[in-house]
Amino acid sequence: MSGNKFKIVLFQPEIPGNTGSIGRTCVALGLELILIRPYGFDINEKSVRRAGLDYWKYLKLTEYDSWDDFIESERPKTSKLFFLSTKTDELYYDSDYSEGCYLIFGKETAGLPESIHEEYPTRFRTMPMCSDKIRSLNLSNVATAVAYEALRVIEFKN
Fold first, then answer.
1. pLDDT value at position 17?
2. Using alpha carbons only, how large is the chain's radius of gyration in Å?
3. Contacts of 31 (CB under 8 A, 6+ apart)
4. Which residues span the domain enclosing 132?
5. For 30-76, what is each residue's pLDDT tens digit?
6. Rounded to 10 degrees, what is the CA torsion of 1, 8, 16, 113?
7. DSSP string, 9-31
8. 1 part of a folded domain
9. What is the pTM of this model?
10. Is residue 151 part of a domain?
11. Domain total for the chain?
């Protein structure tokens, strides 16, 4: 398995433990983590480092000040963008992940802004939930599950 097959993007993350855990997954898979400001915490906070343990220093991390800065700098093709949301019926495992794609996750309390939903309506995917007792799953759990599925699809294609 080779690293850097795709990137994980966190849009305005709010919970340092989730960001740290996702960073740890990125190190394990050799992925870049992209964070889009503002954050709900200080990136140097102990809780981020604690969740990432001693692996944080190995993380390939890129930070952008806004969604527009991210788009202008990365210049991704729309077909390479995969947004995770509870506001769609399209399942994450029915996706055509390919090398160089971006797995994009919104903030824990609000998800992604409506403007992004409107701009990329066909690029949203969801994690199935069989209970109506919860609204969503933990961000770091979803990011890890989707990352491993993307890796499986990309490696299988090659």
1. 86
2. 15
3. 3, 4, 5, 6, 7, 8, 25, 60, 147
4. 6-157
5. 999 999 999 988 777 566 666 656 788 899 999 999 999 999 999 99
6. -160
7. EEES---HHHHHHHHHHHHHHT-
8. no
9. 0.92
10. yes
11. 1
